[in-house]
From TrEMBL:
The lineage of its organism: Bacteria, Bacillati, Bacillota, Clostridia, Lachnospirales. Belongs to the phD/YefM antitoxin family. This is Antitoxin. InterPro entries: Antitoxin_Phd/YefM (IPR006442), YefM-like_sf (IPR036165). Transmembrane segments: none annotated. It holds the Pfam family PhdYeFM_antitox. Antitoxin component of a type II toxin-antitoxin (TA) system.
């Protein structure tokens, strides 16, 4: 369940920091009853960013497959071994 707090609670920064680290997801901040900001720990942000990068890489890989820019695994392994002298 998402954590939602009013903007006036941002005055207690130590409490906000603690909440950010206790919650895996973001904390939604409201102003006058409407969504205004989102807060999260650096760890949570970096995890989201890592997942986003994985999705982008998978999208590139899928487009390569659809465009036929692939090689058989055995061929690629031989090329890598030759390139790095393995």
């Amino acid at each position: 369940m998402p954590k939602i707090i009013p903007i006036k609670e941002l005055k207690d920064t130590a409490k906000i920091s603690e909440m950010c680290h206790e919650n895996d997801g973001p904390i939604y901040v409201t102003k006058n009853g409407y969504g205004d900001m989102v807060l999260m720990s650096i760890e949570s942000y970096e995890e989201i960013h890592r997942k986003e990068q994985i999705y982008k890489d998978l999208e590139i890989a899928e487009s390569d497959i659809l465009a036929g820019r692939t090689k058989p695994a055995g061929t690629m392994l031989r090329e890598i071994k030759a390139k790095y002298g393995l």
